[in-house]
User: What shape does this take?
Amino acid sequence: MNFSRVSAANIFASVVLAGTGMTSPVQAQQANMTFFVTSAGKGNGADLGGLEGADAHCLALAKAAGSKYANWRAYLSTALPGGEAGVDARDRIGKGQSVNDLHSGHNNINKQTALTEKGEGVSGRGDPVNTHDILTGSDPDGRFSTAGGDTTCGNWAKSGEGSAIVGHHDLQGLKETRHMKSWNSSHGSRGCSQDQLKASGGAGLVYCFVAN
Assistant: This one.
């Protein structure tokens, strides 16, 4: 699986006159993208309607941007009570070496490459508004957490009390530590509501991938 990202270097204005029927470079880039950060959350904190609702959100944003793919998956893990096996985010998006690379030092996710479905940057630490907390519910290996407690805001169905593991798309945090520089597993959120996510630098955004 080759995750193509909407690169800022490839986003430029088309000089083709409107109405000619020609496809602009931006449109072609959006059609072929296989990874993006959602430009907006669902508006109810970390309550995404479960995995099904999160996947539908990814698909709706991708289609609105002109994606040619239909098999979009939100990069989210779930956990079950009592230590039972949950769902791993990494397994939701595919198998093989590319997924292994994604969860290694070879991945290329950073503020310059983790763009929205529109090809726009996502604000991070140091910007007027920080939204670098991306919901994942995952450990660094892309698996559901065994740390105990709520790490998925009730499996993405809670918008009040609780917590969810988030990653930093800009690889920056309060400290120069491995976790603060993790794209998928930096810390737990302060809560699950929209305001609580905002308080710790989030907006209810998620990573979306085309599953192979």
Notes: The radius of gyration is 17 Å. The longest helix spans residues 50-64. The domain at 24-210 is CATH 3.10.100.10 (Mannose-Binding Protein A; Chain A).
